[in-house]
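Input record, target 12 of the design panel.
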C-alpha cells in the first residue's frame, strides 16, 4: 500500500542523501528555503521511500530534491509522488511547475508531461536540463 502525505523538510534529508548525494553529510542537505516548501513523502508499507520538495516562486513552483529509494525505482512511485504534488498545487491555483532535471531522468519527466528546454548544464559534477509543465488552467 502507498500513501503520499505532507512531511517536514527534515524528514526528507536521509532519503535525499541516500539517493542524490551519498558522499555528503545529511546535515549538509538542508536548504534555507525548506521552511517555505511543500514537502511530500511517499510511504510504502509504512516506510518513507520517496520524497519531493516543491518550492514557491511567484505564481509557479519549483520541484527540487526529488528522490525515490533505488531499490524501488521503476515501480511508479516517483510518478505518483510528482503527480500528486502537481494536483495539490493546481488545486491551489499554481500555474506552472518547473525544475532542473538530471539528464539521466529526462524520459521520466517527459512521460509526466514536462517540456525539456535549453542546453545541458553542469552543477556539482551532474548534468542537468531545464523542464517545466503547466498546471492550473482556470480563469484568472
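The sequence produced for target 12 reads:
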Amino acid at each position: 500500500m502507498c500513501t503520499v502525505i505532507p512531511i517536514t523538510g527534515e524528514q526528507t534529508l536521509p532519503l535525499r542523501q541516500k539517493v542524490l548525494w551519498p558522499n555528503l553529510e545529511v546535515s549538509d542537505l538542508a536548504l534555507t528555503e525548506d521552511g517555505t516548501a511543500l514537502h511530500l513523502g511517499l510511504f510504502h508499507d509504512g516506510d518513507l521511500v520517496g520524497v519531493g520538495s516543491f518550492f514557491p516562486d511567484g505564481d509557479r513552483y519549483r520541484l527540487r530534491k526529488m528522490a525515490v529509494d533505488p531499490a524501488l525505482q521503476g515501480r511508479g512511485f516517483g510518478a505518483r509522488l510528482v503527480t500528486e504534488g502537481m494536483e495539490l498545487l493546481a488545486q491551489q491555483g499554481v500555474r506552472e511547475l518547473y525544475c532542473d532535471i538530471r539528464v539521466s531522468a529526462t524520459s521520466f519527466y517527459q512521460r509526466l508531461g514536462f517540456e525539456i528546454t535549453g542546453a545541458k548544464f553542469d552543477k556539482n559534477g551532474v548534468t542537468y536540463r531545464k523542464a517545466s509543465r503547466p498546471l492550473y488552467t482556470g480563469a484568472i
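The chain has a mean pLDDT of 91.
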